[in-house]
Design goal:
The structure holds 3 protein chains of 3 kinds. Chain A is mainly α. Chain A is built from 14 helices and no strands. In chain B, the strands form 4 sheets. In chain B, strands 1, 2, 3, 4, 7 and 13 form a 6-stranded mixed sheet that branches. Chain B has a 3-stranded antiparallel sheet with strand order 9-8-10. Chain B has a two-stranded antiparallel sheet with strand order 5-6. Chain B is globular and about 80 Å long. The chains are: A mainly alpha, B alpha+beta, C mainly alpha.
């Protein structure tokens, strides 16, 4: 239990006596004054709440507007997208941009490449991270601590620095321009984060579980696989989602390492910017198609993610 | 435990996905196998930019019919293409068999592409613009076949120029008839005249350098470097050209520092500018549903004290040394020469052979061709210096200098600074 | 045969360690090695040893030192704003409690958007002549002309304009993390403080922030590193211009390596960059975050 610092009065009333317990419970009267059943930081008075709701509404509008604008633009006619002055809503709604974007050669293929690369990278990341995180947290060895520091250092490497060496490494292994090469590159990005996240999830599992299992005759690996992993399955799901997102949205490695066969959609989106024309319509349509499935998927799984972040955040 | 069941289910799904993904991962979903793995096939991968894709599609169809060579186009944006060429050439493995190169890139990549001297017959040399034949020859070998060429011309709003009231007002104010400009002074006058009521006379492009270089030629100096590779950017002609360029800022839409080709083209097509200096292909690219469709006229580039001058923007087809498909690649390049006129029907609408242009120049819808040919044959027209540091000079010196100039910097100081920077680069 | 716990732990960590060694450590080693050579951009070209020459050139070049300061400024702006906004939103959600849960979910959506898409989106909003923001501000009467502020064309402010998509994307993350941290503060503590008469500012600075310190520390360090490495958003918005005013280290290294074909110099810059980040992170970690001290 963390001890809070004693709060001094702003008004200069009597300071708390040394013997007072540090967390007295509020009286019923006190809580009634603030509104029914609102504890801790939650705002009680109606006036305050209304103000807060207004603030929230404003924040939501400001925050959500850019993406809505993207969506609206994708439904405008191509020439309408570059109107001067620009408009928010389409003058005439059309699916022309979507047809253009998705009909362009290489675009559907890039989707397949993106999915492929993301899946391989996620699986690779999990397969490597879960045992490693377990080893670090359960057996607090020196090598474990060194390893986690090394993982942090890996995170500091700017992709631009290792992009070209990795590309020529892959080329010399005969893997130039393949999804697996890109997946490996993406895993270098998601592995440190995965180890970090899984470490915090493992920390939350009490040791008694494995001890019970080993007492029952399970090997250590068996205990890990049969007992611990099911318990952190939620954490694994969260880690998987983050690893998937990291690969799905990645641009720089894809730019440096893919050419024709394994090009992913983010690169295709950037390529709509030609020297003599800016195909905003197609670009917004493709960006929308690329982002919406992921947004929907994550909103569906959001509760898991928030729960995961809670655990991850607290344990650092 | 239901959690166990879920885990098992998830794991199975995940496992199946992975197996499928891994199985398919050898071949990415995009396009046929790259040339480095399939020697001797008759499919060539051609790396192009958007305009080039349009240009060569007709050629590709003919080539397939005639020689059986199948073509797979890979399209990239301009900047992306240079970066891709750089990174592939430096890693040593190329994913393409033919690449369309901008002329300014030839010096940088000359060591990475192979000679195609056999395609430059005497007949070919006569039918290609002389400046392009000269440019394609680097260190004694021909390393690129010109596929199309381009130059900036004047595009203007015919409807506004032919309007009776405008004509009368202009005559009264400036003392001569309103017509497509042929000199610098006329360009300035007309720009000032049309800047009113939410419209501008012209645009000023701070984001790109070729237009200013054309004016340098018109003022009578070679661009940036002279024949001995000495830096001459601070001479009188450069200063005149820069002053002329920036004098138009007051008659142009704001934000000149970031206005590039795309922005300028859009502004003109939206009817915001009365004139623009732009690459000739834009004439045929005006969308049918735009505000200015059918109201646009074309005229050759204006003349400075040294006459009409333009910077040609040719693109060359080259074959990389590292390709395993060289024969098929060279066949395609030959097709591109033979059917060069097919490109004229495309979205970009350009060619490299004089005969191709002459075939179309009198047809309706191709009013931009005569001005283009006149500009390409202009007295002061010349190609850009062939130095492998050109891209770097443009990126780090020329464009920033132009951006500072259009924002109000002193031209003499800026040119002197530029000289020093370029000399440092070339050391 | 039962191997020792320590061996078992090592065995568990080996695959991941091996992976990082091969695919991160080795390329880094090549990066550092390359920084001592002058390398031709075409494969199979020349490669001559030049010692510390690349490093000298890097320090002497204005592009490099400029990029360094710009990266620092960019990082500070991004991290400060995303922390402030994220904390504000987290507090807002906490104070509104369960009824705002659905909005919390909605607020998460920028996390899913690719940085390249966010960059394009904001470029579209801020670009001269075609951008919506200028037009809206003009219609609201705040600007006299839609193009009065050159968000992406004015070298004085472009570095801060290109930070906007980055902040927009990462505030969600900060909010999520801080919200989670706030959930762990026991309600009784707050009640007690309130009973003692503490008002909002005191609550915030004396109780909440100190309790959140480990969370904040990690978040700041991690986001700081990410901001310093920013690439996608800036590349797509301005490509480093105008006049290199938005060119951060990542962009400079990319340009030097790919566009100007000088891998040796780029490697030297990359090495220096990495060393700087390590140094800063080390300082940050040992001062702000004291692992194990807070329990």
């Amino acid at each position: 239990m963390r001890t809070a610092e004693r709060v001094r009065h702003d008004g200069g009333a009597t300071p708390m006596a040394p013997g007072t317990p540090s967390a007295p419970v509020a009286t019923g009267k006190e809580r009634m004054r603030r509104g029914v059943n609102r504890e801790g930081l939650e705002a009680g008075r109606r006036g305050t709440r209304t103000l807060l709701w207004v603030l929230l509404a404003a924040a939501m509008v400001l925050y959500g507007f850019p993406f809505l604008y993207l969506l609206f633009t994708s439904f405008k006619t191509p020439i309408d997208t570059i109107a001067v002055p620009p408009t928010i809503l389409p003058r005439e709604w059309t699916l022309e941009n979507y047809a253009n974007a998705l009909g362009r050669s290489g675009v559907p293929a890039s989707f397949i490449n993106s999915i492929q690369t993301a899946i391989i990278s996620t699986v690779l990341s999990l397969v490597l991270a879960v045992p490693a995180a377990y080893g670090i947290t359960r057996y607090k060895t020196l090598s474990g601590r060194i390893f986690i520091m090394a993982a942090l250092v890996t995170r500091m490497v700017p992709p631009v620095a290792i992009g070209i060496p990795l590309a020529s490494m892959m080329a010399s292994m005969g893997l130039a321009d393949t999804p697996i090469a890109l997946s490996i590159a993406h895993t270098t990005i998601s592995l440190p984060l995965s180890i970090w996240l899984m470490s915090s999830f493992f920390e939350a599992v009490p040791k008694d579980l494995e001890e019970a299992a080993t007492v029952d005759g399970c090997s250590r690996l068996g205990a890990l696989w049969r007992v611990v992993i099911p318990v952190v399955s939620g954490g694994i799901a969260v880690t998987a989602i983050f690893a998937f997102l990291a690969s799905w949205n990645e641009f720089l490695f894809a730019l440096l390492m893919t050419a024709i066969r394994s090009q992913t959609t983010p690169v295709v989106i950037a390529n709509f910017q030609t020297q003599f024309g800016l195909d905003w319509g197609s670009m917004t349509a493709l960006a929308a198609v690329y982002s919406i499935p992921v947004i929907l998927l994550t909103l569906l799984l959001q509760r898991r993610i928030v729960a995961g972040m809670t655990l991850g955040a607290v344990k650092g | 435990m239901s959690t166990r069941k879920n885990i098992n289910r998830l794991a199975t799904i995940g496992g199946i996905c992975t197996v499928v993904a891994l199985a398919a991962s050898g071949c990415g979903a995009g396009g046929p196998a790259s040339s480095s793995g399939s020697a001797g096939t008759s499919t060539v991968n051609v790396l192009v930019e958007a305009g080039g894709h349009a240009e060569l599609t007709g050629v590709a169809e003919q080539c397939k019919k005639e020689t059986g060579v199948d073509v797979n186009f890979v399209e990239l944006p301009y900047d992306g293409m240079f970066n891709r060429l750089s990174s592939e050439f430096s890693s040593g493995t190329v994913s393409f068999d033919v690449a369309a190169l901008d002329s300014v890139w030839l010096p940088s990549f000359k060591d990475a592409v192979q000679p195609i001297d056999e395609l430059f017959t005497d007949e070919a040399k006569k039918d290609i613009f002389p400046a392009l034949v000269k440019e394609a020859n680097v260190d004694g070998h021909f390393i690129g076949m010109p596929a199309w060429t381009n130059a900036e011309i004047i595009l203007y709003r015919k409807d506004l120029f032919e309007d009776a009231k405008n004509k009368a007002d202009f005559q009264a104010k400036y003392g001569y008839g309103l017509a497509a400009p042929t000199t610098w002074k006329q360009y300035q006058d007309i720009s000032a005249f049309f800047t009113k009521d939410g419209m501008y006379g012209t645009d000023v492009k701070g984001g790109v350098e070729t237009e200013w270089l054309a004016h340098v030629l018109q003022a009578g100096s070679p661009m940036v470097l002279d024949a001995n590779n000495k830096v001459v950017i601070d001479n009188a002609a450069h200063k005149e050209a820069l002053d002329f360029y920036t004098s138009l800022v007051k008659d142009a839409p704001s934000g000149a520092a970031q206005v590039d080709w795309a922005a300028a083209q859009n502004l003109f097509n939206q009817g915001k500018t009365a004139m623009t200096r732009f690459w000739a292909h834009a004439y045929r690219q005006i969308p049918k549903d735009s505000a200015v469709a059918g109201k646009v006229g074309a005229a050759p580039m204006i003349a400075g004290s040294a006459g009409v001058g333009g910077v040609p923007g040719p693109w060359y087809l080259s074959v990389p040394k590292a390709t395993k498909n060289a024969d098929a690649a060279k066949k395609f390049v030959k097709c591109a020469y033979d059917y060069n006129d097919k490109g004229i029907e495309s979205n970009l609408g350009l060619a490299a052979r004089i005969s191709a242009f002459e075939k179309y120049q009198d047809k309706p819808g191709y009013e931009s061709f005569k001005p283009l040919i006149q500009t390409l044959n202009g007295k002061a027209t010349a190609t850009r210096p062939a130095t492998e540091k050109w891209q770097q000079i443009v990126d780090t010196v020329l464009v920033p200098m132009l951006q500072k100039a259009v924002a109000g910097g002193d031209s003499a100081t800026l040119l002197a600074d530029a000289k020093k920077q370029i000399e440092d680069l070339l050391k | 045969m039962r191997i020792s716990d320590r061996r078992f732990a090592l065995f568990l960590m080996t695959p991941a360690a091996l992976f990082l060694a091969v695919f991160v450590a080795f390329p880094l080693f090549r990066l550092v090695a390359d920084s001592f050579f002058k390398i031709s951009p075409i494969a199979g070209g020349s490669r001559e040893f030049v010692g510390l020459d690349n490093y000298v050139r890097a320090f002497a070049s204005e592009a490099f030192t400029g990029a360094g300061w710009r990266t620092l400024a960019y990082t500070l702006v991004v991290v400060t704003l995303e922390f402030a906004l994220g904390l504000g939103m987290a507090l807002l959600f906490t104070m509104l409690g369960k009824s705002s849960q659905i909005w919390r979910t909605v607020f998460m959506y920028p996390l899913m958007i690719a940085p390249i898409v966010a960059g394009l989106l904001w470029k579209f909003l801020m670009i001269d002549n075609f951008g919506l923001i200028g037009t809206l501000l003009h219609q609201a009467g705040i600007l006299s002309d839609p193009n009065q502020i050159g968000w992406l064309s004015d070298p004085g402010i472009v570095l801060y304009s290109v930070a906007v998509p980055d902040i927009w994307l990462t505030t969600s993350f900060m909010c999520l993390v801080l919200f989670a941290g706030l959930q762990n503060i026991p309600g009784d503590l707050i009640e007690a403080a309130r009973l003692d008469g503490a008002r909002a500012p005191a609550l915030l600075f004396r109780i909440i922030l100190p309790l959140l310190r480990p969370v904040i520390a990690v978040a700041l360090v991690v986001r700081g590193i990410d901001a310093a490495r920013a690439f996608d958003t800036i590349l797509i918005q301005t490509n480093g211009g105008p006049q290199s005013a938005s060119e951060t280290m990542s962009l400079l290294i990319y340009r030097t390596m790919i566009r100007f074909g000088d891998p040796g110099l780029a490697s030297a810059m990359g090495t220096l960059y990495l060393l700087a980040m390590l140094a800063v992170a080390f300082v940050a970690v040992s001062t702000i975050w004291r692992p194990g001290k807070d329990n």
